[in-house]
Design brief:
- By secondary structure, this protein is an alpha/beta fold.
- It has one domain (18-282).
- It has 17 helices and eight strands.
- The chain has a four-stranded parallel sheet with strand order 2-1-3-4, with helices on both faces. Strands 6-5-7-8 form a four-stranded parallel sheet.
- Strand 7, helix 15 (258-267) and strand 8 form a beta-alpha-beta unit.
Length: 319
């Protein structure tokens, strides 16, 4: 109740709710996981997971699903805790100087890894693809930017490329996977397309269908703003919401972008999952490149939708 006046003052539409903070952020869960599951003596190399702000503070289960999937593929996962926000929110509000500042910091931190041939992967399309696209415009002539951009990938894109090369190395669970309705993020569709995501879902045994819809209508903070709420809704109503509502109730609604997931759950009666969560659940039981640690601490049971996560985040105890 106390938050409502503050949200109104910020211009947030009264029907919207901001995502709750998780009681245990991704970095804390990551450290717990690493202490319980030490790096195997033999891996196929390192991968930097560029943990975005949403995965860090609101949806750490997405970050942990990424870790599980990368480890299943035999990689040692490394995170750069000193990294800053990617700068995309600043760019969307015209704060170019601030975006350039964080871009310079991130490039400075990541360039040495990229020069060593270590891939940089992310689970939030707008975040990881800002490193690959907008950073070139923010820091023209910076040689390190090109190196970082060339090594930056969406996680499903990165794994699909390995599969295309016959080098993925993941054993998927047997039996038929779930029916999956996948909606691609606009930034993803503009720079990559949904082909890699769809390919990987099918390789993992899922019966995957692509939404074929355009923008969900959220567009970052746009759909939260009182003056844009109705427009945001109308954009989604054009094609996406009817397509979601037409799917069978047992069909998994898989999405990558956090804005798309929030928008679908807000305007339909369907729960959503991040595509990386769906893929991580399809890894065959017992498959792992790493030897099990002695007396491992079991991973936390994660919620299975944005709606459930919000309920848990607002009722769970302190970290």
């Amino acid at each position: 109740p106390l938050a409502r006046p503050a949200l109104r003052a910020l211009g947030v539409h009264p029907e919207r709710s901001l995502p709750a903070f998780a009681p245990r952020p991704f970095t804390r869960r990551w450290k717990r996981h690493r202490s319980a599951h030490p790096v195997a003596s033999r891996t196929r190399g390192k991968v930097i997971y560029f943990h975005d702000t949403f995965a860090t503070y609101n949806y750490p289960r997405v970050g942990m699903a990424a870790v599980r999937l990368l480890e299943a593929a035999g990689f040692e996962v490394v995170i750069e805790e000193r990294r800053a926000c990617c700068g995309r929110p600043m760019l969307s509000k015209g704060l170019v100087a601030d975006a350039r500042r964080v871009a310079r910091k991130n490039v400075g931190l990541l360039a040495r890894h990229a020069r060593a041939g270590i891939p940089i992967v992310g689970t939030e399309p707008s975040c990881i693809l800002t490193l690959r696209d907008e950073y070139r415009d923010l820091l023209p002539g910076n040689a390190d930017v090109e190196v970082v951009a060339s090594q930056s990938f969406m996680l499903d894109e990165f794994l699909a490329k390995l599969d295309d090369e016959g080098d993925l190395g993941i054993t998927w669970a047997g039996g038929g996977g779930p029916d999956v309705f996948f909606h691609g993020h606009c930034h993803q569709k503009a720079l990559i397309g949904v082909g890699p995501s769809m390919s990987l879902l099918k390789v993992a045994g899922c019966e995957a269908t692509e939404s074929g819809a355009g923008c969900c209508g959220m567009a970052g903070s746009f759909g939260y703003e009182t003056e844009h709420y109705d427009v945001s809704k109308k954009v989604g109503e054009e094609r996406l919401f009817p397509a979601v509502n037409a799917t069978a109730t047992e069909t998994v609604i898989a999405v990558a972008g956090v804005s798309c997931r929030q928008q679908i759950e807000h305007f339909t009666d369907r729960d959503t999952r991040h595509i990386i969560e769906v893929l991580a659940d399809r890894v065959a039981p017992g498959h792992a490149w790493q030897a099990a640690a002695a007396g491992p601490v079991p991973d936390e049971v994660e919620p299975t939708s944005e709606r459930t996560a919000h309920a848990i985040n607002t009722t769970d105890g302190p970290a």
